[in-house]
Amino acid sequence: MHSNEKLIRDFYAAFASRDAAAMAQCYHPDIMFSDPAFPMLRGTEASAMWAMLTSRAKNDFEIILTMARADDQGGHANWEAKYTFTQTGRKVHNRIDAVFAFRDGKIIRHIDRFPFWRWSRQALGPIGTLLGWSLPIKIMIRKKARAALAQFMDRDDYPKP
User: Fold this and answer.
1) Which of 46, 113, 57, 48 has the alpha carbon at shortest distance from 82?
2) Closest CA to 103 of 12, 14, 26, 49
C-alpha cells in the first residue's frame, strides 16, 4: 500500500473513532479543505472544523470508508457519513467523494464533494426538499457553518495555535 493511501485510511479511521487530534496529524499545516458546507478552510480552520463536528457527534455517528487509493501525485476516497444533524434532529446518510493532494507526507489539499440538495433534503426536511437546491439556502447554511466554527474556535477550551 502506498504511504499516501495509508495516510487517507488513517485519517478516516481517526474520524470513525472521533479522534480529531489524530485527524489533524494527517494534515499539513498549510492544509486547504473545502466542501459544499465549509468552502475554503485553511490551516487550523480545517482541523477545528473536524474537532467541532466530532465533538457534536451523537451515538448514531458512523463513518464508513468504502474506497481509498493514492500515489505520489494524489489520492481519492469514497466515504459515507451516517449521523443525526444536530440543528434539526434529522437523520443523514451522506455519500462523499474526496480528492487529496500531499506534501511532506501529509495531506495538503482535501476536497469533499457531495450533492448539496440530497444532503439538504435529509438534514433540513421539507425546507431542504423545496429549496435545498437554491443558492440562498446554500449561502445560509454556509454562513451558519462558518459562524459555528468561529464560535467553536473562540472557546476558552479550544487550543489556540
Assistant:
1) 57
2) 26
Third-level CATH fold of 3-114: Nuclear Transport Factor 2; Chain: A, (3.10.450)
Report helix angle 44-56 to 135-154, nearest 10: 90
Question: How many angstroms separate the CA atoms of 76 and 56, rounded?
Answer: 26
Query: Is 10:102 a contact under the CB 8 Å cutoff?
Result: no
Q: What is the pLDDT of residues 65-102, one digit of tens each?
A: 999 999 998 999 999 999 999 889 899 999 999 999 99
Per-state percent for the chain, helix, strand, coil, to nearest 5: 40, 30, 25
63 vs 88: CA distance, rounded Å: 20
Dihedral angle sign, alpha carbons of residues 31, 32, 36, 39:
positive
Cell representation of residue 148: 459555528
